[in-house]
Every structure is written in C-alpha cells, then in structure tokens.
C-alpha cells in the first residue's frame, strides 16, 4: 500500500484488489491520524460513473468535500472502468467487485465500522452487484444515485430512440462473432463507436465508444451483472435510492420498481427520494442531496 499526504485532510492511497488490480483512492477526513480511536464516524465509499473517476465533475468531485463540511468522511476509488477503462478491453463490469472488496477491506483494517457505499450512475450498478454477492457487517447501507433498472435495457431503449448506428442488435451480433463462445476469456476484441447513442445528431457528444468485450459485460443482453433488477432482492442492507427530478437517463418508474423488488424480498429498509431541480447528477441541488445522505448516515435504521 502507498499513501501520499497531499493536504491535512486529503490522502492519495493505492492498494491492490484481490486479483492484482491497482486501486487508486482519495481519502478525505478530518484529523485522520489523530482520530484513530474515533472510527465510529461514518465514512462514505464513493464509486464513480461511466467514463468517470474521483475528480470528475459533479457528484464524484463535489460531494465528498460537501459531506466533510457536515462531518462525514469519504473515500473515493477509481475502478478499472475509471477514465477510459471501457476503451481498453480490460474494464470489465463484473470484475469491479474486486475493487469494492479491496476498498471495504482497507477501511475495515483502518478500524472503520460504519461504512456506507455510494454509487453514482454506473457506480450504483457496481454497488448493487457487489452487495448482492457480498456480506460485510461493517457496511451499514447503500446510497444509489441515478441507478438504472438495467444498464443493458437502458442502452437498448436509448439506441432505439435515437436510431443509432450501429443498432443494438447489430452490435450484439458483431460482438458474438468477435468474442466467440467465451467472451470473458476471449483474446479477440475491437474498439467501436456508436453514433447517435445519446442524441439525434451526429455530434461527438452524442456518441459512445467501447470495446466489444467491455460492452458485452456492461451493456449486452447477457450482461446479467449489470441488471440491477436481477440482484436487488438479495440485498439485505438498508438502501437509499436517489433520482434527480429531471433525470434524462433514469425514467421515473425505475427507482420505485427496484424498491418494490427489495420490499418483496422482505427488506423494508428501502427509501426512494426524488431530488428537485436536479438532472442525472443530483449535486445540481446540493442542499437536498446532502440532506438525504446525511440523514441516512447519521440516523441509521435499526436492524
């Protein structure tokens, strides 16, 4: 593990995931070294969105500092899908479970016993996948901002809406031909562009770039790990789902549909909150965003 103090409140820390991936993290605390006996303080572990990282605009960059002003500490990590991970073929959605494993283990080793996982957009789907397959008593709850009911279904609807080139079905057929019978271990891969993936014009801002392997495991019709609705029923931790009132990517029905799955499984500690005057990034309304998160971590539910 490497640790660099860049400010009295900020540490850059690197540690290895169980499969060897090097995780870079940003720890933001008050008097970290002097407070070794005070780790009842809640800490939020932040996971970035698509093409994001812990210094990306909006929630990843702004929220940890805003929480610190409220007395809530944070650690943000860069997963293998950070920056341009989806363009390398090594940014496989399923494998991000290892980075979360490593981060939770690091915080636990440091003595933290009130860990909350917060995922933004793609990061929310990563956390759902982790929480459905892991159980750690020091993780007290999940905060899911901009959570897709299913990443593959969301992209399919978008591509159909904007009449993308290639179409969702064309990408799938091409990916099957390139990756073969074992997409995870396939040594064949190519980078490709989806034109008009996010809008009606051919401007670059509306395009998306993947490799076929990263797309297969994140957006393809067999990307089961990225389908939150398949996993929510196995999560027993308290869950707060947050959606911006004007989110153009998450449809209004999605959070409540996911909450119904959780309730049907017997977990009653599930809340859905709409953040007024916010889009996909709820830090467009920081006061309301902070109120929901600090309420969750400061007054955890019983059981």
Walk me through this protein's architecture:
It is a single chain. The protein starts with a strand and ends in a 5-residue tail after the last helix. It has helices spanning 59-69, 97-109, 122-133, 151-162, 168-179, 212-218, 253-264, 286-298; strands at residues 2-7, 10-16, 22-28, 43-47, 73-78, 115-120, 139-145, 191-194, 208-211, 239-244, 270-275. The strands form 2 sheets. The chain has a 9-stranded mixed beta sheet with strand order 1-2-3-5-4-6-7-10-11, with helices on both faces. By secondary structure, it is an alpha/beta fold. Helices cover 30% and strands 21% of the residues.
Gross morphology: globular
What about the largest sheet? Answer: 9 strands, mixed
Structural class: alpha/beta
Number of helices: 8
Main β-sheet, spatial strand arrangement: 1-2-3-5-4-6-7-10-11
Cα radius of gyration in angstroms: 19 Å
> In angstroms, what separates the terminal alpha carbons?
34 Å
What CATH architecture of the largest domain would you give? 3-Layer(aba) Sandwich
In short, what is this structure?
The protein is α/β, with parallel strands linked by helices and 303 residues long. Helices cover 30% and strands 21% of the residues. The chain has helices at residues 59-69, 97-109, 122-133, 151-162, 168-179, 212-218, 253-264, 286-298, and strands at residues 2-7, 10-16, 22-28, 43-47, 73-78, 115-120, 139-145, 191-194, 208-211, 239-244, 270-275.
């Amino acid at each position: 593990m490497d640790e660099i103090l860049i400010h009295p409140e900020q540490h850059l820390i690197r540690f290895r995931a169980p499969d060897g991936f090097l995780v870079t993290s940003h720890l933001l605390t008050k008097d970290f070294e002097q407070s070794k006996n005070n780790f009842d303080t809640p800490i939020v572990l932040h996971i970035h969105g698509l093409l994001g990282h812990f210094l990306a605009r909006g929630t990843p960059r702004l929220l940890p500092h805003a929480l610190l002003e409220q007395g809530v500490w944070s650690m943000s990590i860069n997963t293998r899908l950070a920056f341009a991970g989806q363009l390398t073929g090594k940014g496989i959605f399923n494998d991000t479970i290892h980075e979360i494993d490593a981060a939770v283990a690091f915080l636990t080793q440091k003595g933290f016993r009130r860990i909350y996982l917060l995922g933004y957009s793609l990061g929310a789907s990563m956390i759902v996948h982790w929480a459905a397959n892991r159980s750690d008593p020091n993780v007290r709850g999940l905060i899911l901002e901009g959570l897709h009911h299913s990443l593959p279904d969301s992209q399919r609807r978008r591509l159909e809406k904007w009449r993308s080139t290639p179409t969702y079905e064309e990408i799938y057929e091409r990916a099957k031909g390139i990756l073969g019978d074992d997409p995870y271990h396939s040594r064949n891969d190519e980078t490709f562009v989806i034109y008009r993936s996010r809008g009606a014009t051919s401007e670059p801002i509306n395009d998306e770039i993947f490799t076929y392997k990263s797309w297969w495991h994140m957006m393809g019709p067999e990307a089961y790990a990225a389908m939150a609705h398949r996993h929510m029923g196995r999560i027993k931790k308290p869950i707060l789902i947050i959606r911006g009132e004007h989110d153009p990517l998450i449809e209004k029905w999605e959070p409540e549909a996911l909450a119904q799955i959780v309730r049907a499984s017997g977990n009653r500690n599930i809340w859905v909150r709409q953040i007024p005057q916010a889009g996909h990034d709820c830090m467009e309304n920081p006061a309301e965003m902070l109120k929901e998160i600090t309420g969750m971590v400061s007054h955890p539910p019983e059981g």
